[in-house]
């Protein structure tokens, strides 16, 4: 979805920087691409560009947790179970919301398995967003690896715009049009 949003913003005449984790997609033409490998790298790359950006759309599903201990070598199989200790990663979207400058538009995504609109509305308020695109995950033929998705856009002014099931390219165009009007 992030690549479709970057292309839609570019096509709408915006200068676009796409901060992307590992994907099997070609870099979009006319878009500055910043490739990152980890949640920490994504946080640093996004925060370094945030204050100079008029519109920030955070579509990435960034990991909420990471292994507490990083190993330099492969962990060999041993008898018995393995317990992995995890630690929270930085909440990039919340950090952007705390440091949002006047006039800046901040858009987040809420990928939920239940209580979609309630969870999305909570995230919109808690993270100081202007808009949030709420979508159900775990539904066949839509979402992360699919060509189509269905989202409801919630706005800080109480807007609730059902965009329905469409191609990600169509959804991206509509999202960019709505959040920049």
UniProtKB/TrEMBL annotation:
GO biological process, alphabetically ordered: coenzyme A biosynthetic process
Annotated GO MF terms: catalytic activity
DNA/pantothenate metabolism flavoprotein C-terminal domain segment(s): 1-179
Protein name: Coenzyme A biosynthesis bifunctional protein CoaBC
């Amino acid at each position: 979805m992030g690549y479709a949003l970057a292309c839609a913003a570019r096509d709408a005449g915006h200068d676009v920087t796409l901060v992307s984790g590992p994907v099997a997609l070609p870099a979009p033409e006319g878009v500055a691409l910043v490739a990152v490998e980890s949640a920490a790298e994504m946080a640093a790359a996004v925060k370094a560009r945030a204050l100079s950006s008029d519109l920030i759309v955070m579509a990435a599903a960034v990991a909420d947790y990471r292994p507490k201990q990083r190993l330099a070598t492969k962990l060999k199989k041993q008898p018995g179970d393995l317990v992995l200790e995890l630690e929270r990663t930085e909440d990039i979207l919340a950090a952007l919301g705390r440091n949002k400058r006047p006039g800046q538009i901040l858009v987040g995504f809420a990928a939920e398995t239940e209580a979609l609109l309630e969870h999305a509305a909570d995230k919109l308020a808690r993270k100081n967003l202007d808009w949030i695109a709420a979508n159900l995950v775990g539904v066949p033929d839509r979402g992360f690896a699919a060509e189509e998705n269905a989202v409801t856009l919630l706005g800080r002014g109480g807007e609730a715009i059902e965009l329905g099931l469409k191609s990600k390219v169509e959804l991206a165009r509509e999202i960019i049009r709505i959040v920049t009007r």
